[in-house]
Amino acid sequence: MELMLVAELGGKVVGTLQMFRSSEQAYDKPEMGITSAIVRFLGVDPDVRGKGIAESLLRKSIELTQSWGENVLYLHTSDKMQAAIRLYERMGFERALDKEFVNQNGTHVKSYQYVIKKEQPAGSSNHA
């Protein structure tokens, strides 16, 4: 892991995510060919879901990805995470079909990428 982002509300940790610098670091899978930032283990306390915490953590991860000189942020998810998938898509993440895989449990792991445009301020939306 490269770093962990933590969201606090009233002195209580209510959300976290981990960032990695490559598929080798994140999954021990250099063959995936990801040499850019990857978000894993995004989690928000169920008591505070819907308050923008996951979005804030993701926006900060986009900003960090850009500060690292990278222009693509990846994440992986599955169909079990429909609310998260809606958030990713609303924020401008798009499917990266060539980075998907089947895990050891036989689950199809979907890949999403957020492409940071050069002229775009960190954390702003990709779409008008």
SSE blueprint and pairings:
Blueprint: E1 3-9, E2 12-20, H1 23-27, E3 37-44, H2 53-67, E4 72-77, H3 82-91, E5 94-95, E6 101-102, E7 108-115
Parallel strand pairs: 3-4
Antiparallel strand pairs: 1-2, 2-3, 4-7, 5-7, 6-7
Q: What's the short version?
A:
The chain is an alpha+beta fold. It has one domain (3-115): Gcn5-related N-acetyltransferase (GNAT) (Aminopeptidase, 3-Layer(aba) Sandwich).
Return the structural class.
Answer: alpha+beta
Total domain units: 1
Q: What is the N-to-C succession of helices and strands?
A: EEHEHEHEEE
**Spatial shape:** globular
Q: In angstroms, what separates the terminal alpha carbons?
A: 33 Å
The residue fraction in helices comes out at 10-25%
At the first level of CATH, the class is Alpha Beta
In CATH, the topology is named Aminopeptidase
How much of the residues is beta strand, in percent?
25-35%
Oligomer status: single chain
Overall pLDDT confidence: 92
Spans of at least 5 consecutive residues whose pLDDT stays below 50 are none
CATH architecture: 3-Layer(aba) Sandwich
